[in-house]
Every structure is written in C-alpha cells, then in structure tokens.
Write a structure and sequence with these properties.
Structural class: mainly beta
Radius of gyration: 17 Å
Strand order of the largest sheet: 1-2-3-4-5-6-7-8
Strand content: over 45%
Number of helices: 1
Order of helices and strands: HEEEEEEEE
Helix content: 10-25%
Length: 145
C-alpha cells in the first residue's frame, strides 16, 4: 500500500512540476492590434494538464467595446474582463504551441491558433488563422509579468 501512495504522490508532484516548468504557466501579456499597433487588453495565460488557456483580465483604454456583443452562445454579451479567449493550446516543443483556438471579441469569431515564445520569453507571436496558417494574422504580445 505504501509504494502505491508514494507512486501517486510522485505522479502528482511531477505533473505540478511540469505545469510550473511550462514557460506560459501563469503569465500575463499585453495584446496589440496587428493593424494599428494600439494596445488592446491584458491577457492571463494558464496551463492545466498540459493545455494552455487564456482570458482577458483588463480592458485597455483604446478598446472600443466592453462586452462581446458579436459572440454567440454562452459568451454572447459577456463582459470583456474575464472573457476566455484562448483554448486548447498545447506545447509542441521549442517554445512553440499549436492546435489551439482563439476568440476575437470584436467579431465574435473563433480561429485556429498557434503561438511561439521568443527566446528571451518576453514576446509571444500569436497567429490566428482559418484552415491553414497562411490565411491568418499575427500579433506580437508583450509580457507584463
């Protein structure tokens, strides 16, 4: 019985260590409009069980909307602050993450997502796209903390 408990504790400890070791775990990012360069929001990323998710934690002064009026379903008319916008993103190595989704609160649409963390871990290249990556847009997010 004692070896089983020890094995379970080791597994739990190693999964917590893996989450903490992920460079995106509990990070906060300033987002910028890819067309204008204006800062739009502050987003917090979290990692649970190897999956990165993110939500808006602060709406910045240049942001024109306060609620996700063009969203559908449960997110319709939800306030931007607290709005989940990054889903199902998974590490693929080399500080790269793929197979995720990102919600654009301005148009209410969800896009496929891949991101790449810069070597100094201060910039995040965020690529949202439809179908193939060539049909998309890239934003550079700056680390807040």
């Amino acid at each position: 019985m004692l070896p089983r408990i020890a094995a379970i504790l080791c597994l739990l400890g190693s999964s917590a260590l893996a989450a903490a070791a992920d460079p995106l775990h509990d990070t906060v990012w300033r987002t910028f409009d890819d067309a204008t360069g204006v800062a739009k929001a502050i987003v917090q990323l979290e990692v649970k069980h190897g999956v990165v998710t993110g939500k808006i934690i602060q709406r910045l002064e240049g942001t024109k909307i306060t609620n996700c009026v063009k969203c559908t379903g449960a997110l319709k008319n939800q306030p931007l602050v607290g709005l989940p916008i990054v889903y199902n993103l998974k590490a693929v190595g080399n500080n790269s993450y793929e197979n995720g989704e990102i919600l654009d609160p301005l148009n209410g649409k969800t896009y496929r997502l891949r991101v790449k963390l810069s070597p100094d871990e201060q910039n995040l290249e965020v690529r949202g796209f439809i179908g193939v990556s060539m049909l998309g847009r890239t934003q550079i997010w700056k680390r807040e903390r």
